[in-house]
Design brief:
Low-confidence stretches: none
Number of strands: 6
Radius of gyration: 16 Å
Helix content: 25-40%
Strand content: 15-25%
Largest sheet: 6 strands, mixed
Shape: globular
Number of helices: 5
Oligomer: single chain
Distance between the termini: 23 Å
Number of domains: 1
CATH superfamily: Flavodoxin domain
Length: 204
């Protein structure tokens, strides 16, 4: 098990369906590339492309696409939650993801531990307004509540000029502070995921 490569899944919470360009998608893919540099196998899902029903259950019935997405979430060692900033808040799609993940509070493994123990989560946030720290606080508290462990300095964000017209995806090159933050978040996430795989949290 310890020799099995770590895996990562990015949930992209853009409001724009594919194939529309998305800054959140770009940042998620960049984070996955940084994780890949550490041997992590990753993939991304743009949630708005799927019928993720409202609710707080693992399966909201016929037509709900979340159960298949949930399987991939549970299989991944590292979750990347990428969201744009709207009115200083995370997107409604990101909120939907958190609400659906709430179902995992009642799920336990064979040792009676929460099913998301030993999993790691990091965040990617983009937008032309303030709010990144506020959003990271909400995402990380919610993810911690359901069992994820948050690595040190694992919030990666870009804030463009307030009310500006340039999006993250429009930049000629990624600002060095963002690159540095991405690489730190990726390295710390991989280190923590490997540590938790080698020494899982104990049963309660």
């Amino acid at each position: 098990m310890t020799d099995t490569p770590l895996t990562a899944l990015a949930l992209v919470c853009s409001l724009k369906p594919s194939p529309a360009p998305s800054s959140s998608q770009l940042l998620a893919e960049q984070i996955l590339a940084d994780l890949a540099a550490h041997g992590v196998e990753g993939s991304a899902i743009r949630l708005v492309d799927h019928d993720v029903r409202p609710g707080v259950e693992a399966d909201m019935g016929e037509g709900d696409d979340w159960p298949a997405i949930r399987e991939r979430v549970l299989a991944a060692d590292i979750l990347v939650l990428a969201t744009p900033t709207w009115m200083g808040q995370h997107s409604s799609v990101a909120q939907r993801a958190l609400e659906r993940l709430d179902a995992e509070l009642s799920e336990t493994d064979g040792d009676g531990r929460p099913i998301l123990f030993d999993k790691v989560a990091i965040a990617g946030i983009v937008g032309n307004e303030d709010g990144a720290h506020h959003i990271a606080a909400i995402l990380f508290q919610s993810l911690d509540d359901i069992g994820y462990t948050i690595p040190a300095q694992s919030s990666v964000y870009w804030n463009g000029e307030a009310m500006g017209s340039v999006d993250y995806r429009d930049l000629a090159e990624t600002p060095e502070p963002v690159v540095s933050a991405r690489k730190t978040a990726a390295a710390n996430a991989v280190h923590l995921a490997r540590a938790l795989r080698a020494a899982p949290y104990p049963a309660g």
